[in-house]
């Protein structure tokens, strides 16, 4: 068994404009890092387009159509102050969501043990009817709901270690009794959600807010004492991971103190949990990470740990 790496031919064409932190250079840095000889044995695939039906499991169909119709033929279109569309955004959006569908399919069919989707735009801030925070379609929600609809994995779990709270993922699954969402994140910080009292309609939401400047020990304690026990109690059929690397100490958009060693640790813990709880079924997707050097090193640590877990 091995790890599947899914990339998108159009990720670099999603142009967010000069000076924007969520730039095409992010995916270039990730791709270059994963082209090293150490990753030669990864199974690789290009992301297909997600269908309207697949994306509409996470969002109303009208919303998905509105997002895609808002893609300009030239120049830039603003969804909000931070969320930008350009002529290449449409193909990137549908391939980012399609990557999750393809990754879930490969893991569900036993073709690979786990998968990492190196795609953009990110997705975890996209609510059911609102694009925001660099995010247009909630990719990981599309993947989780595809695991349920196409493969019968009823109990889906999403764990998010991006430094920003995944308000969109939480909102989409808030009333879902057979979904679990856990997040570690800096608080207060954008988007302002993610307090401990946010527990979901069925008590299946676990938020672990970390104060600015928090050391890695607090991050690890949050996982050991809160996230991992709650995940085990939920007993998922399939585990998905929102892998944001902007909690790195060198990231410009936040103030936590993690390094690539911490991302390797949390990846290993989640892979062990997946092995114990759901036959190793794990799909991860790139979310944030805005210092290119730190992002590349963190992705290397993440994928190398997934690869070791799959062997």
Keywords:
alpha/beta; two-stranded antiparallel ribbon; 10 strands; 311 residues; globular; eight-stranded parallel beta sheet; Arginase, Chain A
Care to describe what's here?
- The protein has an 8-stranded parallel sheet with strand order 2-1-5-10-9-6-7-8, sandwiched between helices. Strands 3-4 form a two-stranded antiparallel ribbon.
- It is globular, with a radius of gyration of 17 Å.
- The protein has 311 residues and is α/β, with parallel strands linked by helices.
- The chain is 39% helix and 15% strand.
- The N and C termini lie close together (6 Å).
- It has helices at residues 24-33, 52-55, 61-69, 89-108, 139-151, 167-173, 216-234, 260-278, 292-310; strands at residues 3-7, 43-46, 77-78, 84-85, 114-118, 156-160, 179-186, 205-210, 238-243, 282-286.
- The protein is built from 9 helices and 10 strands.
- The protein has one domain (3-310): Arginase, Chain A.
In short:
The protein has 311 residues and is of the alpha/beta class. Helices cover 39% and strands 15% of the residues.
Taken from the alpha-carbon principal axes, the silhouette is globular
Strand content: 15-25%
The major β-sheet equals: 8 strands, parallel
Mean pLDDT over the full residue set: 98
Could you give the order of strands across the largest sheet?
A: 2-1-5-10-9-6-7-8
Which stretches are poorly predicted, pLDDT < 50 over at least 5 residues? none
Q: Determine the N-to-C terminus distance.
A: 6 Å
Helix content: 25-40%
CATH class: Alpha Beta
Q: Tell me the count of domains.
A: 1
CATH topology: Arginase, Chain A
Q: In the CATH hierarchy, what is the architecture at level 2?
A: 3-Layer(aba) Sandwich
Quaternary class:
single chain
Listing every helix as H and every strand as E from the N terminus to the C terminus, the arrangement reads EHEHHEEHEHEHEEHEHEH
Radius of gyration: 17 Å
Number of beta-strand segments: 10
What is the CATH homology-level superfamily?
Histone deacetylase domain
């Amino acid at each position: 068994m091995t790890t599947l790496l899914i990339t998108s031919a159009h990720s670099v064409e999603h142009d967010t404009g000069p000076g924007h932190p969520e730039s095409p250079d992010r995916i270039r840095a990730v791709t270059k890092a994963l082209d090293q000889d150490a990753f030669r044995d990864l199974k690789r695939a290009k992301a297909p387009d997600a269908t309207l039906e697949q994306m509409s499991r996470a969002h109303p169909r009208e919303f998905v159509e509105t997002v895609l119709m808002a893609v300009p033929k030239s120049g830039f279109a603003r969804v909000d102050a931070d969320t930008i569309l350009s002529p290449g955004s449409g193909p990137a959006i549908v391939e980012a969501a399609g990557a999750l569908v393809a990754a879930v399919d490969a893991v569900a069919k036993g073709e690979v043990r786990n998968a990492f989707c190196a795609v953009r735009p990110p997705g975890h801030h996209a609510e059911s009817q609102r694009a925001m925070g660099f995010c247009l379609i909630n990719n990981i929600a599309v993947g989780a709901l595809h695991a349920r609809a196409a493969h019968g994995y009823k109990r889906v779990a999403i764990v998010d270690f991006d430094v920003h709270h995944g308000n969109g993922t939480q909102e989409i699954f808030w009333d879902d009794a057979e979904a679990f969402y856990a997040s570690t994140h800096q608080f207060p910080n954008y988007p302002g959600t993610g307090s401990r009292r946010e527990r979901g309609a069925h008590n299946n939401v676990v938020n672990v807010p970390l104060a600015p400047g928090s050391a890695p020990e607090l991050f690890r304690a949050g996982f050991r004492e809160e996230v991992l026990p709650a995940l085990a109690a939920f007993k998922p059929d399939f585990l998905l991971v929102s892998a944001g690397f902007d909690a790195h100490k060198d990231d410009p958009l936040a103030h936590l103190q993690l390094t690539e060693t911490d991302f390797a640790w949390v990846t290993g813990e989640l892979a062990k949990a997946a092995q114990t709880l759901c036959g190793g079924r794990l799909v991860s997707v790139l979310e944030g990470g805005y210092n290119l050097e730190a992002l590349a090193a963190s992705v290397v640590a993440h994928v190398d740990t997934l690869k070791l877990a799959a062997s």
